[in-house]
Amino acid sequence: MESNRRKLLKALGATGLGLSGLVKAAEAIAASPKEADPQPSRPFPGEFYWGTATAAFQVEGAVNEDGRGKSIWDIFSHTPGKIKNNWNADVAVDMYHRYREDVGLMKALGTNAYRFSISWPRIFPEGKGSPNQKGIDFYKRLVDTLLENGIQPFATLYHWDLPQALQAREKGWQSRSIAEHFAAYAGYVASQLGDRVKHFFTLNEMFTFVEWGHGTGLLAPGLKLSRKDLNQVRHHVVLAHGLAMQAIKAAAPGVKAGPAENMVNAVPAIATPEHIKAAQEATRQLNAGYLTVMLEGQYTNEFLEKEGKDAPRFTEAEMKAIGTPVDFAGINVYMPNHYVMASDAKPGYELLPFTKVHPKMASSWHYVGPEALYWGPRHMKEIWGVKEIYITENGCGAADEQDKEGRICDTDRVMFLRNYLLNMQQAIEEGIPVKGYFHWSLMDNFEWVSGYATRFGLYYVDYKTLQRIPKLSADFYREVIKAGRVL
Ligand code: GBH
Known about the structure:
Layout: H1 2-15, H2 18-31, E1 49-53, H3 56-59, H4 72-77, H5 95-109, E2 113-117, H6 120-123, H7 133-148, E3 152-158, H8 164-170, H9 177-193, E4 199-204, H10 206-214, H11 227-251, E5 256-261, E6 266-268, H12 273-286, H13 288-296, H14 301-307, H15 316-322, E7 329-332, E8 338-342, E9 349-352, H16 372-384, E10 389-394, H17 411-429, E11 434-440, E12 459-462, E13 467-470, H18 472-483
Helix pairs in contact: 5-7, 9-11, 10-11, 11-13, 11-15, 16-17, 17-18
């Protein structure tokens, strides 16, 4: 013993490493991949929510069943010319009836979490007033089935399907009253499901449904508002989030809640300190009406100055509600929205345009940039000190053609996933508190204005039979979850 010890110390001296150096070297050897590993990659934490995501209007169908009211998307999708091929979501993938089978698909992937959305017009067909018991019962059945299968439910309260009655009678998000109605609905759902759903997301992608639904008019309700009216819609939406946060916590004290936003993700073109700082400032400014005001509790001076007389009108009490502390933040990450460089000129950063040949996935908007899944979470932590982060959506559309054997070998989606997940792993390893990842989507579904033309699923849906078929990417995701690292 003694002589071994002496030998070791002698050898140590010879290496010049010293004891701490040796410990570090030993740790490095232990952490480095074994030679037998087919592709070495670093592990994800053992405790992690691996999930998939869907949204009510995109998957449920059964639009006239069990007392469901109409939503603005029913009206919009039945308006000729709004949706590719004039498709609608009356049946979608019929998850309303097939949810048991679909929970089985989640289980087959090895996922332990599922993010779904609750259809407001199923719960309150008129948007407010008396609740529809059959609507709430559906979500109770779904949640119980998930829990029986070891899958944690993460419920989103609004994924764009506003009750049509509120649009027609109260001008939808243009009215402040909608924020109150949303909070009442959120509180009611939390009171009914809060014993079994422990994570609620308030609104999905405020940026998208406000800017595209009320600015360009491309999404429902298809409005093109003036700058001033648009600012007021933005304000009502973040107010709805804040009031809902309070209502949820009041109705179900044990549950956690936060937003699920597609942050405008400004990525440093080169990761040097000056460009990183510029990217952070750009991210803060570009999210001024959404994440920034929600997480800081006030509009930035830059935003108020820029909007001038068109800026939103607000009260102190509203700002306090908007800034209600969140338990976590969900971010939908598909791409770098901008590559950024520092600049000597105001505002201190420059947004670089995408080049003409920058690679894209199947959707025309979908630039590829795997580093988005590193910078998104890092910005949330470094800009706003968010302590619990969920990737509420990440994924891509792909061609997804069946081959002669009926297989869907979506190597492009696997390529996408592999590289985005490697970046998420790096963020986690650096101590950025990403606690879960939800792939968009579990299966192909109604992709809004693209209808059924663009497929985002891990499972392929044969729209003639509604059969679900796992794609290569489903196998990939299952193996990654099983191994706890990217393969
Ligand atoms: C998400 O939006 C949605 O939350 C989800 O429902 C959807 O199915 C999924 O992603 C896939 O699209 O098409 O050029 O007119 C992703 C972010 C922002 C992308 C708005 C499409 C419209 C631009 N979306 N954008 S365009």
